[in-house]
Amino acid sequence: IGGHAQPQEGRMAPPGVKRLIAIGSGKGGVGKSTVSSNLAVALARAGKRVGLLDADIHGPSQPRMFGISRRPASPDGKTIIPLSAHGVTLMSIGFMLPEDKAVVWRGPMLMGALQQMLMQVEWGELDVLLIDLPPGTGDVQLSLGQKSDLTGAIVVSTPQDVALIDAKKALDAFATLKVPVLGLIENMSTFHCPNCGHEAHIFGHGGVAAEASRLGLPVLADLPIDLDTRLAGDAGTPVALGEGPMAQAYATLARRMID
Ligand code: ADP
Hints:
The protein contains 8 helices and 9 strands. The chain is of the alpha/beta class. Residues 25, 28-34, 61, 187-188, 223, 225-226, 229-230, 233 line the site of adenosine-5'-diphosphate.
């Protein structure tokens, strides 16, 4: 995330944002939002100016993961002032609605909200804007891939076959949309028993690395199943804010993104 991406003509790109990086997964529940929030925090701790756009409009997780939810101000009724927490500039449809309220919208409304969140939010000067994608390869992926100036994408998967099948579809969609994939992240691969130290591979192990090597892509991180990660996510204080091994792992991931 060093240099400046040149916006292509007619494409959506917030003016002060140097790099737009989408984080996708294919399947839901594999940790895409968890990785997005922690990577954002780790990049902020590394001194980068970071934003996070929660593009999972039907299932926004970032308000909970950052422990913040209030309606962002819009002094002129047009531009929206994003919220900020843990050093990260944030926008989510979840800020506009109570947590138990569903967004039941058709595609065009969804696309309108996405465009507003990308272009009408005053993101300011950012080194990187991460976009937490919804699962699947639908409207949001297509719209962002075709109309925005994505610098690249990261794909998160567990090593389990049913997750990998969908991750491969996400990778295929990015290839079709000509969005460069920066690398893959294997999440929830290993579980270290806190009592006996035994290592178990609950969702398997190495499936993401195998797919990455087949495609000639790097594995950017191999993250274990970790109770603190889950607790911290639910508490609104991402584990990357701390000093433990997971915070170190996310700091390493952030460094790999910066180099
Ligand atoms: P997605 O965005 O892919 O739907 P989430 O990030 O919401 O997935 O994660 C799904 C659930 O798994 C959440 O409860 C989250 O706290 C938990 N989780 C994600 N990654 C880990 C991990 N490495 N260790 C333990 N729990 C995790």
